[in-house]
Amino acid sequence: MPGTVIVGTQWGDEGKGRFTDYLAKESALCVRYQGGHNAGHTLVVDGEVFALQLVPSGVLYPHVTPVIGNGVVIDPAVLLAEIDMLEAKHIDTSNLQISGNAHLIMPYHQELDRVTERFLGKNKLGTTKRGIGPAYADKALRVGIRVQDLLDPKIFREKLDLALREKNGVLAKVYNRLPLDADEICDTYLAMVPRLEPLIADTVHLVHDALDAGQHVLFEGAQATYLDLDHGTYPFVTSSNPVAGGVGTGAGVGPLAIDRVIGVAKAYVTRVGSGPFPTELFDGDDVGELLVERGAEFGTNTGRRRRPGWLDAVMLRHAVRLNTCTEIAMTKLDVLAALPEIKVCVAYLGEDGTRYEHVPYHQSVLHKVKPVYETLPGWKCEIDRVERFDDLPAEARDFVRFVQELAGVPITFIGVGPGREQTVVLPRAA
Ligand code: GDP
Ligand code: IMO
Ligand code: MG
């Protein structure tokens, strides 16, 4: 079964979008399986920049059917704005398919995301405030409203009234906010139906028909392994399952549908929002500043500065396990080019001196670990025009091999710049 998963191995923004775009060339379907418009996936093709949130990154190819699976949470207004943005750039989006089972992000989800973050004060998660957590919570509580509900105004209104009864109570009584108006929400959402209806499809069928026909199906993860609700640094996580296992529920396939799992890893690490980060380089650190500046480490959609740090091979190795990665795609190797030396975290030291080769399961331990680094020489020359692995400086090749050894699976692609063509393909292990 020719299914390939692209999954983030860190805390997001590894460059999943650019590799999805790269691999979509040989795919029939490109499927998002979780998350929502908390994602920001950037593609750069012939100098043109595309910042995507909901539409799968395979959309630039006319032969690819972009699919938004049932596991995604959709803000329909954001989706339509993204479609308009793409059409304005002459990208045909008419074959986009949306699962009728996907849940809708409603105005009260966004409002609750904002007020609960404020309520948490210094314990806030640093969410994207897009309503993601509250929308998934309602899905689990079984009071969510789905895309298919838009097709029946009566059902939509009934579900909305039911939801608002509770949400308005909470908003007014707990958070001292004004209640939301059902008529207004109904008008806004139902007005979008004529544009959305032609896109709604049985996406599970589409995926299986393609797999049965032996066509390549690419599953595009959003967020990443350490933002996973079950496997990430809880509670500083998102509310879905970005790990490769999430493809099963989020797109409607079993594990045997997947034969390739590509873990995307930056040559260093970034994180947006709160939570533990063992290899973090704190504000004012010269290397950290350089990574942020050279790597343009600001959120694609939110504009927030990303927290930088050295590559963490302990986390990478664990991510390889959690996702059964068959290989790694490394991005942003070019960003390291200015550094005289490069560090890689190979283990952690706990507060009591215990050495950890694996990510400790106890969050209190992880919060306090100190990274154990190996230091490698840098190469101090730009590599953004390199096309073949053998043409990289010896120090860069050694760095890639070192990380590959620690990860335990081959590195098969290297990004040397944001452009589609700035991709070095390794015919075999480095
Ligand atoms: P995603 O969320 O995983 O798809 O990643 P984002 O698009 O949010 O963030 C990755 C950023 O790095 C984007 O601005 C990309 O254009 C850029 N990028 C991706 N790969 C490379 C690379 O190999 N080198 C450089 N310099 N930039 C890259
Ligand atoms: P892509 O797909 C980086 C982070 C937020 C916050 C936490 C929870 O572009 O890699 P949420 O709004 O999901 O409830 O926020 O998760 N976060 C991301 N960080 N990249 C993303 O997506 C993210 N999506 C969510 O910053 O810490
Ligand atoms: Mg991103």
Calculate the terminal CA-CA distance, rounded to whole Å.
27 Å
Q: What class, by secondary structure content?
A: alpha/beta
Q: Strand count, sense and closure of the main sheet?
A: 10 strands, mixed
Proportion of residues in β-strands: 15-25%
Quick summary:
The chain is α/β, with parallel strands linked by helices and 430 residues long.
Identify the notable features of this structure and list them briefly:
430 residues, binds 6-O-phosphoryl inosine monophosphate, four-stranded mixed beta sheet, binds guanosine-5'-diphosphate, binds magnesium ion, alpha/beta
Describe this entry's structure for a reader:
The chain has helices at residues 16-24, 76-88, 107-120, 132-141, 153-174, 182-191, 193-196, 203-212, 246-252, 286-294, 313-323, 363-368, 394-407; strands at residues 3-8, 29-32, 41-45, 48-52, 65-68, 73-74, 97-99, 103-104, 200-201, 217-220, 258-266, 269-271, 307-309, 311-312, 327-331, 341-349, 355-356, 370-377, 411-415, 423-425. The two termini are 27 Å apart. With 430 residues, it is of the alpha/beta class. The strands form five sheets. The protein has a ten-stranded mixed β-sheet with strand order 9-7-5-2-10-1-11-15-19-20, sandwiched between helices. The chain is 32% helix and 20% strand. The structure holds guanosine-5'-diphosphate, 6-O-phosphoryl inosine monophosphate and magnesium ion. Residues 8, 12-18, 40-42, 44, 296, 300, 331-332, 334-335, 415-418 line the site of guanosine-5'-diphosphate.
